[in-house]
Model the fold of this input.
Amino acid sequence: MADEHHKDIDAVTGTATTGHDWDGIRELNTPLPRWWLWTFYITIVWAIGYWVVYPAWPLLTGSTEGITAWHARSAVVTDLAELKTQRGPLMDKLASASLPEIAGSPQLLDFARAQGRVAFADNCAPCHGAGGGGTKGYPNLNDDDWLWGGKITDIEQTIRFGARSGHDKARQGNMPGFNGVLKPNEISAVADFARSLSGLPAEAGADLALGKKLFADNCAVCHGDAGKGNRELGAPNLTDKIWLYASDKATIEQGILNGRGAVMPNWEGRLSEPVIKALAVYVYTFGGGEK
Amino acid sequence: MTQLEELVREAEVKATPQSAAPQPAFMEESDDDGPLYAARRNIYPQSVSGFFRNIKWAVLGVTLGIYYLLPFVRWDRGPDAPSQAVLIDFPNRRFYFFFIELWPQEVYYLTGLLILAAIGLFLMNALAGRIWCGYLCPQTVWTDLFYAIERFFEGDRREHMKRDAGPWTVQKVAFKAAKHITWIMVAWWTGGAWVLYFADAPTLVKELASGTAPFAAYLWIGILTVSTYTLAGYMREQVCLYMCPWPRIQAALTDEYALNVTYRYDRGEPRCSVKKSEQLRAAGKSAGDCVDCLQCVHVCPTGVDIRGGANLGCIQCGLCIDACDRVMEKLGRPAGLIAYDTDLNIQARREGKPMMFKLVRWRTSLYAAIIAIAGGIMIFTLATRDSEGISVIHDRNPMYVRLSDGAVRNAYTIRIVNKQLKSREFILSVDGIPSTLIDYVGLPPRADGRQLVTVGPDQTKEVRVMVTDYSPTPPAPSTTVLFSLIDIDSGATAQMRDHFFGP
Done:
């Protein structure tokens, strides 16, 4: 850079130029204030502070620790421990209170529902759906139709021990298959009769009298003479508008032919006591809970 | 220093070439490649008295008085709310301003305030230039206060310059120490007043005095002490010149009718001494009124020579007007050589036309109208806003539930807002579904059978409700329903639309 250039003074403004010349256009030199430079140096010094305080430089097997030895992982552990301490008193209450006590206390109810919401999403939603809406073969927990009982204690028992889970105290009861026991035309007649129990129309030429007789002989032992079901055995009420699998004749015939025996796992031993209670409260407050 | 030395010194100052623009003194830093960074030039503004100085004192007193004392003003709101007139209550998420209480979801009033502030700045600018910069800006007000403290301890311009240039003496150290201690005390009070807006002021003052205040209070006092001391004691005009975006923006907002602090060069030029102007005038030649006494430059807090015309460094505080008017008064010449004026008027006077001051014009009318509309909307919504509110979230999964008897049920989470400072009881109803039943989860009906929701003073409450359609015909896939929340005592109602879904 030629020295004489920066002696150039712009005639109009009286300001020195940088000496750079682009096709006759020259740049005025209006330097930044010096404190700006200092501020820049201070930010550099500040950055060095991070090396001292936090893990910074990668080494062969790890990194420099810094005086605080802060790690995202240990910070999470600390935060979770703190959360546990915060929730401790309410969790203890939840563990010791009876279910009716929980339902009767607004504070415990809110807490249990909040806990239950999370636990439900983690453990129950894969089968029952995010809002407990259920799907074919997996009961809707929002309605007022319960296979094993809709009182809060019933719900807790089902969650705790499961259904056909293999646990000693599990809900037991199977819908056997009638393949070989009933002839195809008989199965068709029973299916027609089962549909008629809830007011669904029968097929043309359906033998409802035969269906009624076969139902009384084979099905009423679990489903009841009137088809109202039996919660002791998890036998569904066939007279209501809710169908666990589907209400079409083919699905019903399939159930009669092959039987049904859906399994719900037992959660005792996998989930802690307060969480099981919270789940029971949460499911109970979906809207179908019985007094 | 003798009188002679003073005169010599003054003559030297005058002899220093004053360039038109405010020019950082980088020349002394130049090296072969030219200077990249310029050192700050010390500014020693001379004290001045006059009309605009009095306005500045008044504004300084009022604004700082409000700032330091407002947290102590009390406002009785009853037992369930703080009694501080102006309080930003972060832990409880409330903002109190006398009779107004704002919730976080009403932050749009802040948007309204920001609109008012922006357009207010535009309007000031269109009327009379940088009124904000010259009189109201916190940077200006605190710097002005710090300059006053500096002059109190270190003397006026000339005395201060002389001492700074002289050797270090016990007296110099004592004066400077006293100045800095006072500055830090003012800065500390500034930070102290700041934190009082975020907690009950008398309680916090007691806690601060006894050392039991929260750490955040001390931290913020510390931060604001440092920033006030630095910005008002050292950075001063550098903030206006380099940091603040407003000088750049205002250049785009001014127009030919906006009044600006203007050197009336039509009257002032050519500059010459009193004696020379008498000679020139006697000889029938023209002579300007400006005697080049540099008083306007010496009083300037940003070190600008206003005679160079409007420029970035000028905050338009009007102190040069006061200084020039005093000189003109002594010389027996009319005041107003520097005044709030426009370039158009300078041209008009040169051409012998009448001066024109046009404060009402499209630009100012539009700004005033926007301020009136925005302010009007804010006042109207504030005056007519409800003290109860309802928001409804429909269950996302499942959208509807079929019950065993065939009825269809939808579930909603409803949040009820009670902005009054007393506990209230609400009843909920839903319209749009022919035969409905509302169930509350975990909220048993009262002895008289009524299903009421109680919401505590200044609180919200979330309830889960289930709405069942019992009509024999199945509902449409989607029906619009209207939730009404009714205060059973006053009958005040809040409503929210939602949907009822069916198969």
